[in-house]
């Protein structure tokens, strides 16, 4: 099994920044990268960003140029640096990866609220 724990969410004014963390433990896959998703209650979950094991990254158009994903292998942690935040970025952010058993694992999420 794999455990993913997100942290770093909170209330920020528009234009502000937050850094989310996703820390993995357990039997993670040696080949899977990690995705960040976000979801607003009552709406479809939206993919935000991805980082591969070898450091390749990709972003949704809605966050490109504002968000940066990175990883600290020694800490088994992936970060999502979010700058120039907008009210429409308000959501619960969750991370996902796959385990050595081939199954997908999700964290419980961290709430990000952008409001003045």
Give the helices and strands, then pairings:
Layout: E1 2-7, E2 10-12, E3 18-26, E4 34-39, E5 46-51, E6 57-59, E7 67-72, E8 77-82, E9 91-98, E10 104-106, E11 110-114
Parallel strand pairs: 2-11
Antiparallel strand pairs: 1-3, 3-8, 4-5, 4-9, 5-6, 7-8, 9-10, 9-11
What does this protein structure show overall?
This protein is mainly β and 116 residues long. It contains no helices and 11 strands. The strands form 2 sheets. Strands 2, 4, 5, 6, 9, 10 and 11 form a 7-stranded mixed sheet that branches. Strands 1-3-8-7 form a 4-stranded antiparallel sheet, with no helix packed on it. The protein is globular, with a radius of gyration of 14 Å. The termini are far apart.
Structure, briefly:
The protein has strands at residues 2-7, 10-12, 18-26, 34-39, 46-51, 57-59, 67-72, 77-82, 91-98, 104-106, 110-114. With 116 residues, it is mainly beta. The mean pLDDT is 94.
Low-confidence stretches: none
Principal-axis shape: globular
Instruction: Please identify the structural class as seen in this structure.
Output: mainly beta
- Give the distance, in angstroms, between the N- and C-terminal Cα atoms: 40 Å
| H-E order | EEEEEEEEEEE
Total helical segments? 0
Rg value:
14 Å
In round numbers, the mean pLDDT is 94
Largest sheet: 7 strands, mixed
Give the oligomeric state. single chain
Instruction: State which percent range the strand residues make up.
Output: over 45%
Helix content: under 10%
Number of strands: 11
